[in-house]
Amino acid sequence: MTEIYLPLLPLWWPDRKPSAAILHPSFALGCTGRRRDHFALQQPSMTHSAKRHGIARRPVAFATWCDRIGRVQRLSTAQNSKGLERLMDPVELAGLIKRLNIHMDARCRDVGLRQLRLEAAPFGSAYVSIALAEQGPYASSNFNRVHLCGAEQGLTADGMARIADLFRQAGVTKFYVWLSPGPRIDAVRGWLTDAGMTRRQYVRYPTLMRDTVMPSRAASSRIEAREMDATEAVRLAERHEGIAWPDYLRSAGAPGFHHFMAFDGGRPIATAILCVLDDLGYLGAALTAEPFRGRGAQQALIARRVETAASLGCRILVSETLSILKDSLGNLQKAGFTPVFEKEVYEANLQP
């Protein structure tokens, strides 16, 4: 990676990669040259160790977790090489999910995505995505987002205001803050409210988890779910309307992505993906064509993905859904997934 030292704000976006932009004089901008322009903002002296974002490999005493967050979540009964169980709290899981968001956005978003990972005060450890091609009217369809885990690593109210300036100067009129568990989360809620952002009370995204030890069995039905070759998955998804999200098509063939399809009597009726990152498996992009809903397609796809994830060495499985999607939430819970935390979503409307 080539590091280029850059001047202070204002930040501006040319058609391709930025040649001059910065939030703080001590930052450096690394241009990876990846597909869809992936950028990483970092301090020159800062190292990025995978251990910071990975799952704790050493056993942690029950009392230690209780002292830290007041409650404990047993997220996996899978054992490591020493036969010790792995434990994780909601704050640690939230950080892992943020890392997963960065990984998946780079492969699932539309062309032109800008990714900014801000790793120092006053920005905390925010992940920012700017997507001019995906400015939908709702949180689920608008990928101009800020992902936060509380006020980690020195996030301040001033830092949030400067992050909002990134979107304003890029020409974005609306963005969303996705707030997950982390330190001083009540303070962050206050900063967002004081800045005029509105929490979308009915937009709640439960993050659910299970391990790969317990098998997940679909109810007996005529539905067949199987993993697809990337080329065939795209071909069938494009031929049968309403069975696949754009993310399913964009991520086809990407490393770590596995594409699945459900068939009813030989007809494709539903799709879903499994994204594997280290020993984490993420179940996402599930969609069933409307005329075929209620037949067990998603239960079959969940069971098949759990089975595949276990065979690939995953120890932890995670999925997310809207709380108002009762069928989706119910299917995950029937398959052994347990809610760990809910992401809070705040809407920010920017004045021209």
Offer a concise description of the structure:
By secondary structure, this protein is an alpha+beta fold. Helix content is 27%, strand content 28%.
Describe what this molecule looks like in 3D:
- This protein has 352 residues and is α+β, with helices and mostly antiparallel strands.
- Helices cover 27% and strands 28% of the residues.
- The protein has an 11-stranded mixed beta sheet, sandwiched between helices. Strands 1-2-3 form a 3-stranded antiparallel beta sheet, with no helix packed on it.
- Strand 6, helix 4 and strand 7 form a beta-alpha-beta unit.
- The relative contact order is 0.13.
- Mean pLDDT is 79; it is low at 1-86.
- The sequence of SSEs as H and E is EEEHHHEEEHEHEEHHEEEHEHE
Distance between the termini: 35 Å
In helices, the fraction of residues equals: 25-40%
Structural class: alpha+beta
Strand arrangement, major sheet: 4-5-6-7-14-8-13-12-11-10-9
- Poorly predicted ranges (pLDDT <50, ≥5 residues)? 1-86
Give the averaged pLDDT, no decimals. 79
Secondary structure tally: strands: 14
Largest sheet: 11 strands, mixed
Calculate Rg over CA atoms.
21 Å
Shape verdict: globular
Salient structural properties:
14 strands, disordered N terminus, 9 helices, 3-stranded antiparallel beta sheet, 352 residues, Aminopeptidase, 11-stranded mixed beta sheet, alpha+beta
